[in-house]
Amino acid sequence: MSLLSGVGERLREGLRRSQEFLAAGLGAVLASERPIDDALWEELEELLIAADLGAALAADFANRAREEVMFGTVTRAAELRPLFRRFLLDALAPAAQPLDLDHRPAVVLMLGVNGSGKTTTCAKLAAQLRAGGKSVLLAAADTFRAAAIEQLQRWGERIGVEVVHQAAGSDPAAVVFDAVKAAAARSLDVLIVDTAGRLHTKSNLMDELAKLRRVIARQLPGAPHEALMVLDATTGQNGFAQARVFHEAIALTGVCLTKLDGTARGGIVVRIVRELTLPIKLIGVGERLEDLQAFDPAAFVDALVPAG
């Protein structure tokens, strides 16, 4: 699947806050005539941690850079910038995996806590797939929030995609059952399922989500083909804790990172790949439909740390 039309400019705009934060920091730490000494290493690690790359990854880069200095391949502070770009590309390369939509219907289960942008992401993905010629169906399986059902219905009307839904408080499994049955009967290309991010009852959310997965698999062996965790880039460490819980319970296939335009800490992308060992399938860099994009490591690094 290609969601990369005009990706470069929108990505640069979406990552502007992160890019400006890193550019200012790197410009000061890696001034061309500055000696490479202990003070530089300390400041560099502090900068990378502040950009949300995390202490472990910041230390890894510092160690790699020290080796380059020791071997004489880096002799000036300014030469550490292209080295940092190569380091990021190496770290992010395993994360570049497309959505698995080679099924009919391909079932995409969207997971995540409330407020992460999950419902909106479902709609944006549906709109882009439809624009690309695919037939799409949405399922409003967050039945614990009437507002979530209404929001997805409004989106469905706006983008011209049907939404399978029931009344608030209904069994989410019943909604999913109906949606899978409808998508299969009509030979549709993609079914996107919006799920609950919390429950009003004392029931365990993970048990409910695991039940949805079983219902899908019983009707359509091998499905869901994608189980994506929608993470808000501004939540920091809380997001990692949430993703680990979801991954243990649901077996995630990837991450969709939203609201990257709302943070100066775009380095969180690298931490997700490193610490969660999950591919990043999609990123959100703005409010527009086209601001949901497939993750491209090279384009991301160019936007975050320009070569010039």
What does this structure look like?
The chain is of the alpha/beta class and 308 residues long. 49% of the residues lie in helices and 12% in strands. It has helices spanning 7-14, 16-29, 38-50, 55-70, 80-92, 118-131, 146-159, 172-185, 205-219, 237-250, 268-276, 297-304; strands at residues 106-111, 136-140, 163-164, 190-194, 226-232, 254-258, 280-284, 292-294. An eight-stranded mixed sheet has the order 3-2-4-1-5-6-7-8, sandwiched between helices. Strand 5, helix 10 and strand 6 form a beta-alpha-beta unit. The longest helix has 16 residues, at 55-70. The chain is elongated and about 65 Å long. It starts with 6 loop residues before the first helix and ends with a helix.
Could you provide a short overview of the structure?
The protein is of the alpha/beta class. It is built from twelve helices and eight strands. Strand 7 (280-284) and strand 8 form a beta hairpin.
Rg from alpha-carbon coordinates: 21 Å
Question: Ends: how far apart?
Answer: 31 Å
Strand order of the largest sheet: 3-2-4-1-5-6-7-8
Q: Could you spell the SSE succession in H and E letters? A: HHHHHEHEHEHEHEHEHEEH
Structural class: alpha/beta
Integer average pLDDT? 88
Tally of separate helices: 12
Largest sheet: 8 strands, mixed
In helices, the fraction of residues equals 40-55%
Q: Based on CA inertia axes, which overall geometry fits?
A: elongated
Unreliable spans? 1-6
Strand content: 5-15%
Number of strands: 8
